[in-house]
Design goal:
By secondary structure, the chain is of the alpha+beta class. The protein has nine helices and 33 strands. Strands 1-2-3-4-7-8-9-10 form an eight-stranded parallel beta barrel, surrounded by four helices. Strands 11, 12, 13, 14, 15, 16 and 17 form a seven-stranded antiparallel β-sheet that branches. α4 (78-87) packs across α5 (127-138), α4 packs parallel to α9 (341-358) and α6 runs parallel beside α7.
Amino acid sequence: MIKMRKWIVLAALAAKGICGYAQNAPAPYGALPTKAQLNWHEMEMYCIIHFGVDTYTNKEWGFGDEDPKLVDPLNFNAAQIVGAAKAGGFKGIIVVAKHHDGLCLWPTQTTAHNISKSNWKNGKGDMVKEYQLACQKLGMQLGLYCSPWDRNSAYYGTPAYVDIYRKQLKELYGNYGKLFISWHDGANGGDGYYGGSREVRKIDRTTYYGWDTTWTITRALQPSAVLFGDVGPDVRWVGNEEGHAGETSWATYDPQAPDAGRQPANGYTKYELGVEGTRNGQHWMPAECDVSLRPGWFYHASQNSQVKTPYELLDLYYKSVGRGANLDLGLSPNPQGLLNNEDVTSLKEFGQLLKQTFAVNLAKGAKLTASNVRGKSSVKYSPQLLVDNDRYSYWATDDGKTTPQLVLNLAGQKTFNVIRLRENIKLGQRIEAFTVDAWFNGKWEQIASATSIGANRLIRLPRNITTTKVRLNISQSPVCIALSDFGLYKEPVHLEKPIVGRSLQGEVSIQTTAPVSAIHYTLDGSTPTKSSAVYNKPFILPKGGLVKAIAADGNKQGEVAAVQLGLSKATWKATTLQGLSERNKPAYAIDDNPNTIWSTLQPDTAQAFTPAELTVDMGSRQIIKAFTYLPRQDKRTGGLVDQYLIQTSMDGEKWELAVQGEFSNIKANPVEQVVTFKQPVTARYIRFKALHVVAGNGATAAEIGVIVN
C-alpha cells in the first residue's frame, strides 16, 4: 500500500512537471506596452480635427491677432463629422481645442481669447463639449490637443504662460470625460501677435514647458490616456506628415536631441529617427502617422478637388497600420461647420473598402503545421490559434527555437493579395525578419519578405496569388516566437485612377498604368461619368484649369483623378538677382519638372541667409487669381521658404504688392502651396521674394506658377 501511494505521488509530480512545462509562457522581451498603449494599438486609426479662425482666413497657422468673431459655423454638427470618421472605420477623434493662433474652442477661464467671444451660438457654445457628446453617442473614443505655442498670449515666453497652459490642460482633461490620448506637437516659439507686441519670441524647448511636470496632469486626470509627442512618452511622431512609417518599424524608441549632450524634447529631436524607431530601445513608444485627408490641415476651398481617394487612403493604411503604427487622419470642417461631401464620400467608401478587404480570412479552415511548438504538442501554444479571433492567443516555440517554419495547408485553392501577421505584443516585439512562400507547380516560391512585425504587419502583394499551401519562415529573432495572427485577404477588383500630366507647352495627357476600355474626362469641374468626353489623344490647355478623369472598363469605373493646372509656362522667362551658377538656374523653377530645383544656397554653410527673389515675365498680361509654390521634393529642408512676398507688375518697372505671408508647417508637410489673392490681379510680370527659410543660407523652389482659371 505504501509503495502504491509512493507511485501515485511520483506520477502526480511527473504529470505536474509535464503540465508545468507545457504551460510555461515565454519570457517577455524588451520594453512592453501599458494597458493604455494596448488600447491605442487596438484602435489602429483615428482622426484629428482642425477648425478655427484659419478655416475663415485660408491659412494653416493663424498669427494670433484674428478676431474670434470670424468663427461662426451656422450649421456646425459634431455628429456629422464624428459619424463620417466612424463610417471610415476610425475608432476615435482628436479635437484641436486650441491651435497656434491661441483661440480656445471651449469657454476657458484662462483667457478671453476663446469661443465665448465668437458669434457662434451668441457666445454660449462649447465645441469641445459637442464633440464629447457626439463621441459618446456614436461609440467613438475622444482625444484632445491644446497647442503649447500660443501666438495670441501676451505671456508666452514667460513662466506665467506655462501656468496658463497647465490650467488649460486641467480644464480640458477634467471636464470632458474619458480620453484615449493627450496630443502634443513640437511647434514652439516664433513670430506672433503676443497681445499686440508683434515680435519673435523664442523659448528653450528642452526646459520651458517643464514637460515632466506638465505630463503629470494627464497621468492624474486621464490615467487611461496615452501621451503623444516627439518624445512620447507613450506614442512618438513618425517624423513626417506623409502618413508613412518605415518599412522596418520598431515599437521601441529612444529619442535623441539634435545636439550632443542635450535632452530631447517636443520640437527638439532628430525627428527622422522616428520613422523606424530604435531596435531594443528602452521605451515602448510606437509611431503615429499623421496625414491630412486634404493637402492642408485646415479647410481651403481650393483643395476641394484634392481630397484623398478611398484607394489612396487604403495605401496609407498599409504603410502605417500595416507597419505596426497607427494612422491619424486630418479632417477639415468647412466654414459652415461640416465636412464637405467629397470628404464624407471618400471616408465612407474607404470604410467599405476596408470591410470588404478584411471580411474573410482565407487562412481560416487551414491546417497549420509548425516545425516547433512550445511544450511539444501544447494546445495553449498551438499554431492553430493564429486563425482564431483572439488578438493575444499565440503560437510559441521553445526557448532557443528562433527560426521555425509554419505551413498552412489551405482548404482548397485560395486567391489572395494581402498577408497579415501580428505578434503578441504583451510579450514585446520579437521577430526581426521573415519570408513567405507559396506552393506552385510542386515547389515552394518566395512571394514576400519583411523585417519587423509587432502589432501589425500587412504585406500588399503586387499581384494576386492562387495556391493551396503557404509557408512562413522566421529567419531572424533574438528569442523564441510569440506570433498571434496569420491572415490572407483579397482586395476587391478595382481600376486605378488615371494619371494627368502636362508638358511645358501646355499639352495635357491622361493615362493609366494598365489598359482600360476608355478614359472619360471633364474640364468644367463636374465629376466625370461614362457619358463624359472620351480621352483619345493629348490636348492643349494653355490657360490651365481643373481636369478630372476616370478610367472605365466594362461595367466598372475607377476613382476620380483631379488635377488643378496653372497657366502654361511655355513663353515664360525667369531671372534672379543672385548670380547665375550651375546650382542657381531660375529656369528650373518654371520647367514643370518637380525634380529640378532653383537654388540660391551657398556652399559656405556658415554664411547667413540672404533674401532671394525670382522674377518671371509671362510674355503677356494675365488675370491672376492665385500663386503656387512647390517646395523641393527631395525631403531636404535647405532653402524651404516659409515667409514670402509676392509682387506684380505690368511693365517690369513699377511693382505692386500682391500678398505677403507665411507657408506654415511647410517643413513637415512640403506640399504645393496655393496663395489665393483677395482680388484677381492683372499683370504680365510676377516676382517671388523669399524673406525667410526653414534652414540654410538661401532659397529653393521646385516650381512656381499662377492660376488664372
